[in-house]
Amino acid sequence: MNQKPLVSVILPTYNTGKFIEDAVKSILNQTYQNWELIIVDDRSTDGTKKLIQSYSKKDPRIRGMLNKHKQGTGGARNHGILDAKGKYLAFLDSDDKWLKNHLKSSIKILENE
Fold first, then answer.
1. What is the pLDDT of residues 29-53, one digit of tens each?
2. How many CB atoms lie within 10 A of CB 28?
3. Per-residue pLDDT for 1 more than 70?
4. Centroid of chain to Cα 32
5. What is residue 2's predicted lDDT score, i.e. its pLDDT?
6. What is the pTM for the complete model shown?
């Protein structure tokens, strides 16, 4: 049986409550479905934490993490990397979104090249 590799998507966030929904939806809508989403909150003050908790409750592939101290985008990414379980890592900023075939195309290249 040829199982598709797990992709760990790291999404750092800080006060992006008005954008993060589009980013998460773009991951949920991927044609490649063997992923985990790790959303790392860098101590947001705008309600982003509550949004992350609601996403985690709706889909078991989504996990939220909170930095103990404000570390910036790089520190948030590193925190997510340490918790990642996937064969591959992918990074998405919380104010960005992917086309629906992004992961499928990326995995095809990584597995065949």
1. 999 999 999 999 999 999 999 999 9
2. 16
3. no
4. 14
5. 60
6. 0.93
pLDDT in tens, 52-71: 999 999 999 999 999 999 99
Contacts of 26 (CB under 8 A, 6+ apart): 92, 97, 98, 99, 100, 102
Element (H, E) at 62: strand 62-66
Whether the CB-CB separation of 73 and 12 falls below 8 Å is answered with: yes
Q: Which amino acid is at 7?
A: V
Cα 100 to Cα 19, 28, 104: the distances in Å are 18, 9, 8
Rounded Cα gap, residues 11 and 31, in angstroms: 19
> How many beta carbons lie within 10 A of that of residue 107, not counting itself?
19
Residue recorded with tokens 């790291």: 10
